[in-house]
Amino acid sequence: MRWRLPCGHDACRTPRPHLPRRATLAGLVVAVSLNSGCIATGPRQWIRNGFKVGPNYSRPPAPVAAEWIQAKDPRVQQAPPRDGDWWDVFQDPTLNSLIYRAYQQNPNLRSVGTLVIQSRAQQAIAVGNIFPQSQQLLGLYPYGNLARTRTHLEITAFNLSWELDFWGKYRRQVESANAQLDASVENYDAALVTLLADVATNYVQYRVAQQRIKIARDNLRTQEELVALAERQQKVGTATSLDVEQLRTLVEQTRSTIPSLEIARGQANDSLSILLGEPPHDLEPELGPGAELGSLPMPTTPASVAAGLPADLLRRRPDVRSAERLVAGQSAQIGVAEADLYPSISIGTVLGQQDIGIGSILKTSGGLTFIVPQFSWPILNYGRIVNNVHLQDARTQQLIATYQNTVLTAAQEVQTALRGFLRSQEQADDLARSAAAAVAATKIEERLFREVKADVNRLFTLENSKLQQQDQLAVAQGNIALNLINVYRALGGGWEFRLQGDGHSGAPITNTTTHPVPSGEPPAHGPFAVPRERPAAPVPGGLPEALPMSGPGPTVTPVSGARGAR
């Protein structure tokens, strides 16, 4: 299937016949329009485009469903997803603090932010190309001393050359640079979404490992007490050595599970340290021991989630918005390439002063003023120019397909996360009942064992089953939280965090404005807006505005308004 260009034509891909070599100048002008098909923009379209050749950008269609597959489940709400601080649903101040520290200190986030600075500089260069492209200051002071009569000639002149943007080539370049700048900001937001979700994921994994270690140690203490009781019973003849060794096997088996759990906790600890922008170190003094056994499961998770509608992904997910902005930037490159089909018109100006003297007889001075229109048309490069238009067209089609695939992938990730969130709740409920039954049965068997009425084989089985059920329950409760984090990650939540100013206001973000998907020039507000003003209070971990060079050198500053480098 072949996607249509934003201009709506498919004929751009057909080969074009070569121009006759003896074409007159007037014939060439007509031939450009007739021989180029839809490549050449007609006069009316050129005027409607704002005196720019090439297609005006319109957002390509995106395949989105009307609702989620799980929309009928009451736990999946169609209300707008929680913006910004979605991690508050866990009601954990420690997690909130880690999120803030990662936002402030993560070096990878700062690295992605420097790409925004680079895009700002490139956008400024594109704006500057609209203004006079060449300026020269010339000076000539020759003196003649070979003859008896001294002669001198002094000339001071300023030369300026300005290619008029008659076909909109430079304005299309600005459009492309603006879209690239938008995409770089969206990439920063995508990195922020990933960072915040990774911090929450590793924090949950750390807490789950803590809980599993506590469960193992609690069961280990109980089993050691049973071994001691069996040894006392052996001394009085109410238990055999086989009973003692069988229970001791259970103790060592339980003890052997703890090192692997400590490894899992250590991995989560080290990952958290790196995400915080800190060397790996023990975080337990900061994070604390976690919830006690028998208390509320850790972490606490809500039973439902607001997932919105699939169409919300087009304006919420930064990677989707970035892919759309790349299409817009590449679409403008078609107009840049098409502008080379037409003659370029330039104005050359020379302003200066000259003084001429021949001895003491003749002296004259006067001003120099030249205005020279220039005209160039690379008609012999016509084939290469047309193929360049085809190239930019094909690249646009590729990015359209990439954008549509990004939308599909985003929807798939949300569906997978929602399914995991709902099914993990059901699994945790089943395991909670199973673990409660195992605990009750084990308590009965332990009481019978103390009364010398129990079967050691059955006690061994029940103790082992209780440990497994409690451990699986802790994992299932953690999976609920992990799947909920994946839901918010897939929905693109968290990038609004940087809009809070200090990044840690403590109050939930209430901005739920529906942002339209941009078309043409980038808007001044919303997620597609290009932030060009430095905030009053810079955020250490926020979107960077300028980074100092090494040493006392200059800094790269953002573009203000429509002014660029000249």
Could you walk me through the main structural features you see in this protein, from its secondary elements to its overall organization?
The strands form 2 sheets. Strands 2, 3, 4, 6 and 7 form a 5-stranded antiparallel sheet that branches. A two-stranded parallel ribbon has the order 1-5. The protein has helices at 25-35, 43-48, 93-105, 107-128, 169-236, 241-275, 284-287, 313-316, 318-339, 382-450, 456-490, and strands spanning 76-77, 134-140, 143-144, 151-163, 305-306, 344-358, 362-376. The radius of gyration is 36 Å and the shape is elongated. The longest helix is centred in the last third of the chain and has 69 residues, at 382-450. With 566 residues, it is α+β, with helices and mostly antiparallel strands. It has a domain at 132-164 and 343-376. α4 runs antiparallel to α5, α5 (169-236) runs antiparallel to α9 (318-339) and α6 runs parallel beside α11 (456-490). 51% of the residues lie in helices and 10% in strands. It starts with 24 loop residues before the first helix and ends in a 76-residue tail after the last helix.
Total helices: the number is 11
Task: Give the biggest beta sheet.
Answer: 5 strands, antiparallel
Would you count the extended β strands for me? 7
Mean pLDDT comes to 78
- Rg over CA atoms, rounded to whole Å, is 36 Å
> From the helix content, strand content and strand pairing, which structural class follows?
alpha+beta
Query: Unreliable segments (pLDDT under 50, ≥5 consecutive)?
Result: 1-30, 503-541, 546-566
How large a portion of the residues is in β-strands, by DSSP E?
Answer: 5-15%
Q: What share of residues is helical? A: 40-55%
Alpha-carbon distance between the termini?
A: 45 Å
Q: Categorize the overall geometry.
A: elongated
Write the element-wise H/E pattern from the N-terminal end onward: HHEHHEEEHHHEHHEEHH
